[in-house]
Amino acid sequence: MTTQLDLSRAPAPQPRSLAGLSLPALKAEMEAMGVPEKKAGMRAKQLRGWVHHFGVTDFDAMTNVAKEMRAELAARYTLARPEIAEHRISVDGTQKWLTRFGPNVEGESVYIPDVGKSGALCVSSQVGCTLNCTFCHTGTQKLVRNLTAQEIVAQVLIARDELAEWPSSNEDRKLTNIVFMGMGEPLYNLDNVAEAIDTISDGDGIAIGRRRITVSTAGVAPKIPELGARTGAMLAISLHAVRDDLRNEIVPINRKYDLKTLFEAIRAYPDLGNSKRVTFEYVMLAGVNDSLAEARDLIKLLRGVPAKINLIPFNPWPGAPYACSDWETIEAFADVLNRAGYASPIRTPRGRDIFAACGQLRSESVKKSAAELRREALAAE
Ligand code: SAH
User: Fold this and answer.
1) Cβ(144)–Cβ(366) under 8 Å?
2) Least C-beta-crowded within 10 Å: which of 48, 52, 190, 207?
3) How far is the CA of 218 from the centre of ligand 1 (A)?
């Protein structure tokens, strides 16, 4: 038996959005549109300025592009952002977006005021995650898929729209820093993360400098030096344990890349020094990793690495098998670090009321098999 596709019933293809595309991708689109190669680069640069510096969402705003060209662009493309499925604002000013990148592909981003120079956006690099860290809510959601570079950049555009921060040269910007600390493991999606960082840091576009972009990894050791070489971003390591036996349990990627391997990779990160330190994140889990002996071992482990430490009070989620260390324990742990010269290392939890704090992000998206998708499409007819 043969099956035939009835193309007359297939939905019309959606026009593609140019918002969030990198400069080389914009150039490729211009060439695909028939713009001669010589002119495509110039056109791409014009578009980059309008879309990522001015944040326009209408081709007609592009006053230095000829009218016919604008009409042609509008016929083929949009400047739309992905749909916002949910937007919540916390009592502390933190904002969270759940963005729909496609059917059943939803990921979260969080804007945190008053961190970095004036405010940071925490972006997701994947929907779901493969790592299964035992204290992380995202870890309970299977990987749905990697986000594209365009989808990563779109999270920044959405935040800028909401904060009314166009053009990017705006003097007192509220969004000055980007952290890849949302859903997913950025180093398992390094090509797209690197392309997104190129776009975000482009001075003629979104203009958030590489030194204000931090990529956090649970420890994909072989990719760490490559991250530095390709992006120039700041590095953060989700450490959480100072011994292999405990780290194997709570950050299971440690079974593949143990502490020794991890620290060799960290030491190979390019340009480390006083002005470029590695941030070590350490979640405070009551009775698990919060003893003073562990604080002292942490200092030993970091010897010789230009480092900052971020103690993160554990943020609870439904069914989590941990509790947050009590405040005295966290302060005593921090005291040991302070005495060793690490300044104010406790990270204040933000946005807990809207479930936007570290490790609380999770969406309902699940990966569906091709067969499931076909069944659903049939059922919808
Ligand atoms: N996969 C990357 C990027 C995610 S960053 C990484 O692991 O670094 C998210 C940060 O929040 C990580 O440091 C993670 O360890 C931390 N985190 C996860 N669950 C948490 C929780 N319940 N409470 C506090 N921090 C948590």
Assistant:
1) yes
2) 207
3) 8
Q: What is the pLDDT of residue 367?
A: 77
In a domain, 7, yes or no: no
Shortest-distance Cα residue to atom 1 of ligand 1: 185
Q: Count structural domains, the chain.
A: 2
Task: Quote the pLDDT of residue 266.
Answer: 98
pLDDT 10s digits, 103-146? 999 999 999 998 777 899 999 999 999 999 999 988 788 999 99
Q: Which of 129, 136, 324, 358 is catalytic?
A: 358
* Options 29, 106, 108, 165, the catalytic residue: 108
The band of 365, judged by pLDDT with boundaries at 50, 70 and 90, is confident
Contact 369, 329 (CB under 8 A): no
Residue 89, CA distances (Å) to 13, 174, 207, 351 in order: 34, 15, 25, 8
Q: Does the annotation count 108 as an active-site position? A: yes
Distances (CA, A) of 316 to 138, 227, 240, 320: 12, 31, 16, 6
Q: What is the pTM of this model?
A: 0.92
Classify residue 38 as exposed, middle or buried by CB count within 10 Å of its CB (0-12, 13-18, 19+): exposed
Does residue 161 sit in the same domain as residue 47? no
Pocket of ligand 1 (CB under 6 A): 133, 135-136, 181, 185, 216-218, 238, 281, 283, 312, 314-315, 358-359
Q: Which two tokens stand for residue 321?
A: 């098998």
Q: Which of 152, 216, 288 to mutate to test the pocket of ligand 1 (most atoms within 8 A of CB)?
A: 216
Q: d(Cα 28, Cα 258) in Å, to the nearest integer?
A: 42
* Domain-located, residue 377: no
CATH number, domain at 65? Answer: 1.10.150.530
Structure-derived torsion over alpha carbons of residues 298, 304, 310, 312, reported in degrees to the nearest 10: -30
Domain region containing 72: 16-78
Q: What is the SS3 assignment for 268? A: coil
